[in-house]
């Protein structure tokens, strides 16, 4: 058990600078060179970031799952920033806007927690009876993201 806890802790620390972006259409930005270019465009335009803000994105890719059918929700995009503070600033701006639209789709940004942490968060909110104030977003079958609304 202790080894599993250490592995979960290590995975959580490696995801510290990561964000998951839900709602970006599959194939968005087909003409661009990379997913990083799509994410930079999405964040700078939608969050109205100052031009002096350097996002310094190390990596960006779709979640590792098979491409869904056209009528299914799109896979999330995992973004790794070089800096934790930039990641937190981006998340703060996105949450202040309570989501935003990009290419006709509603976009949500969330922390990229390890699956075990997401399951623990969901279970603890159920035990406290906070199911009504906890919203779950299942990006794909293996992942469950749970987060509390701040307005309650």
TrEMBL record:
Which residues does the UniProt record annotate as the domain L1 transposable element RRM? Answer: 16-112
In what ranges is there compositional bias, type Basic and acidic residues? Answer: 124-152
InterPro entries according to UniProt: L1_RRM_dom, Transposase_22
Q: Which domain of life is it from?
A: Eukaryota
Please state what the protein is called.
LINE-1 type transposase domain containing protein 1
Spell out the residue ranges making up region: Disordered: 122-152
């Amino acid at each position: 058990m202790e080894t599993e806890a250490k592995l979960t802790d290590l995975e959580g620390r490696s995801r510290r600078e990561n964000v998951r972006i839900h709602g970006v259409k599959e194939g968005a930005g087909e003409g661009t060179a990379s997913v990083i270019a799509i994410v930079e465009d999405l964040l700078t335009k939608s969050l109205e970031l100052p031009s002096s803000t350097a996002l310094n994105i190390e990596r960006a890719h779709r979640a590792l799952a098979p491409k869904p059918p056209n009528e299914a929700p799109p896979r999330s995009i995992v973004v790794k920033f070089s800096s934790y503070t930039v990641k937190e600033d981006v998340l703060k701006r996105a949450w202040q806007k309570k989501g935003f639209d990009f290419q006709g789709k509603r976009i949500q940004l969330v922390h990229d927690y390890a699956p075990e942490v997401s399951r623990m968060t969901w279970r603890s909110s159920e035990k406290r009876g906070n199911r009504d104030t906890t919203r779950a977003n299942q990006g794909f079958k293996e992942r469950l993201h749970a987060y509390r609304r701040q307005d309650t």
